[in-house]
Design brief:
globular; binds ligand DP6; diphosphomevalonate decarboxylase activity; lipid biosynthesis; Mev_diP_decarb; sterol metabolism; Diphosphomevalonate decarboxylase
């Protein structure tokens, strides 16, 4: 009698950052945000939910080990919201099976290692909520689903859709208008690709949840950002995406990442997420954009030192040459493992990390540092679609 569904959900990386809550329990943000959904073919969370009358309690396994459901308030909130919704449907139609009374077992894993330093809460909660809606047959639209995912983690609400996704902060106290909408599907701008530079840094920083709470309580710059910067930037970003204007998209993305890290520095006590390698990436991308008119790239950093680089597909080979020249692979990682990209786009005869074409000389003159091993791994990916059902009952 058990019902079982398996789904996958993507990671998203914001280009207008969410940082600050106006309601911590409902996870309502202090500003709207906008992100790019990355391809699930490369990075995803995968969740299987089994629903059965014989499951006496709700249980959850994360990457193979069981974790306590009651101890995780956000997980409890997501499950309760989905069950309440199902219960209402059953009340309205007594013919429906009483799935709202059955126990839920959840198995969830990420195909990327935690050691990759990538946040997994966005894809994880998006996948949980999407799978729950499938197994309980909840007739929800994308924006409605995003409100449930939001209860797990704010950024998760943007992983419910593919392509370019905005999270409207909303004004209602109950959060009914704080939901995601798709600005453009992944097919709108398929040439946009991303590199994730995984920076070698074992140190665990301040969690997003605690960090943003301190920022809202102490940063005057954050208050300025919420009211005077983000609303206009959201409009400009939507226009840049609609026009596929990479230069404008890149400038806004880099400025917004810089401002997010500036409000972290303005937080008291201050929060540092970027390290020396992150700063070297900023300098390198700035040098490339200024000195190499044929290559454009945009950097962005979340609550950690890893860089995400957005660039048009045609520029990727040259960017990989530059990044691997200045940040050669650590000697303990094989070149094959260093990229998930099968070198398909690297021109014949070019050895990454070694060849340095003469036309890039100006960049080398400006940026004369090479830091071997500082970038542990490079993941090459692109814009992708929203959650997928892999198998249903
Ligand atoms: C820097 O969504 O992880 O990645 O809502 O407390 O779970 P909670 O925070 P979370 O914060 C993400 C912050 C960010 C920016 C962004 O993704 O917009």
């Amino acid at each position: 009698v058990a019902r079982q569904v398996t789904c996958t959900a993507p990671v998203n990386i914001a280009v207008v950052k969410y940082w600050g809550k106006r309601d911590a329990k409902l996870i309502l943000p202090s500003n709207s945000s906008l992100s790019v959904t990355l391809s699930q073919d490369d990075l995803h969370s995968r969740t299987t939910i089994s629903l059965a009358p014989t499951h006496v309690t709700d249980r959850m396994w994360l990457n193979g080990s069981e974790c306590s459901v009651p101890a995780n308030e956000r997980l409890v909130n997501c499950l309760a919201a989905a069950r309440r919704h199902r219960e209402a449907l059953e009340k309205a139609n007594p013919e429906l099976p009483r799935w709202s009374t059955w126990g839920i077992h959840i198995g969830s894993e990420n195909n990327f290692p935690t050691a990759a330093g990538l946040a997994s809460s966005a894809s994880g909660y998006a996948c949980l909520v999407f799978t729950l809606a499938q197994v309980l047959e909840l007739p929800l639209t994308g924006p409605e689903l995003s409100r449930y995912a939001r209860l797990g983690s704010g950024s998760a609400c943007r992983s419910i859709m593919g392509g370019f996704v905005a999270w409207n902060m909303g004004t209602q106290a109950d959060g009914t208008d704080s939901q995601a909408y798709q600005v453009a599907p992944e097919t709108h701008w398929p040439e946009l690709e991303a590199l994730i530079l995984v920076v070698n840094d074992a140190k665990k920083g301040t969690s997003s949840t605690v960090g943003m709470q301190t920022t809202v309580a102490t940063s005057a710059l954050a208050a300025h950002r919420f009211t005077h910067v983000v609303p206009e930037r959201m409009r400009a970003m939507e226009t840049a995406i609609a026009d596929r204007d990479f230069a404008q998209f890149a400038e806004l993305t880099m400025q917004d990442s810089n401002q997010f890290h500036a409000i972290c520095l303005d937080t008291y006590p201050p929060i540092f997420y970027m390290n020396d390698t992150s700063k070297a990436v900023v300098h390198l991308v700035t040098a490339i954009n200024r000195l190499m008119p044929t290559i454009q790239a945009a950097y962005t950093f979340d609550a950690g030192p890893n860089a995400v680089i957005y660039a048009p597909r045609d520029h990727m080979t040259r960017l990989l040459q530059l990044f691997t020249y200045f940040f050669p692979a650590p000697t303990d990682v094989s070149t094959r493992d260093f990229f998930n990209d099968p070198y398909a786009r690297v021109p014949e005869g070019v050895v990454l990390g070694r060849d340095f074409p003469a036309e890039y000389q100006a960049v080398r003159d400006t940026f004369a540092v090479s830091t071997p091993g500082a970038v542990k791994r490079i993941i090459h990916t692109r814009v992708g679609d929203g959650p997928r059902v892999l198998s249903s009952p």
